[in-house]
Amino acid sequence: MTITLHYFGPPGRAEVTRLLLTLGGVQFEEKRYGFGSPEWLEFKKKTPFGQAPVIELDNGEMIAQTAAVEAYAATMGGLLPKDPLSLARVFEGVHLSHEIIEPFYNSMSIKDEAARLEKRKDLVKNYLPAHLKLISDYVNAKIQKTNAFLFGETPSYADLAFFNAMGMLASGIFDGVPSFKEIFADYPVLLTLHKRVGTSPAIKAFYAKETDDIRKNYRYD
């Protein structure tokens, strides 16, 4: 079965899916569109909700909405626990990772540039510290037990979600947000987790081929 992932060039809301399929050893194809490009505008008409990411199967079926696309990729890659409680814990981590990045995605809807920059400045100053402390404590408690990743010796869906949220936040897409090192300097355990994911063999190999500047915080030499 052929799996085609449709999205734009940046990591955004498709990167975790890319990583899940890669880590799970699932063969897939990609179609990356330019924002507002004729190719995207044409394909957009065919999507269930006029949005991306979308996974298209070779029988023509499409899966839309980020959570559904990720769940499909994680299932296909055999990366979800069978035990209900363990599964819930993984999703708990995935959704916690969203607290890093979602307010910044939401800020993109602010049309006025000055107001958008002011909102992001406020988020960096007044939102991020408390949430990164909470997340840092969560991650620390997990990896103290495993001495590796959040739930064991290999990256989980949740590890990939944190990895992407951190990299995306400081990717340069959100103008007004400080550098990767500045944001996470006071949270060494988050940097440790990020590096462990980024240097795991399959993920490192994936980013060796992704040479764009927007993914500079995803790559480890």
TrEMBL record:
GO BP, sorted A to Z: glutathione metabolic process
Domain GST C-terminal as annotated: residue spans: 83-220
Residue stretches making up the GST N-terminal domain: 1-81
Gene3D superfamilies, per the entry: 1.20.1050.10, Glutaredoxin
MF GO annotations: glutathione transferase activity
Pfam families reported for this sequence: GST_C_3 (PF14497), GST_N (PF02798)
Source organism, top-level taxon: Eukaryota
Name of the protein: Glutathione S-transferase
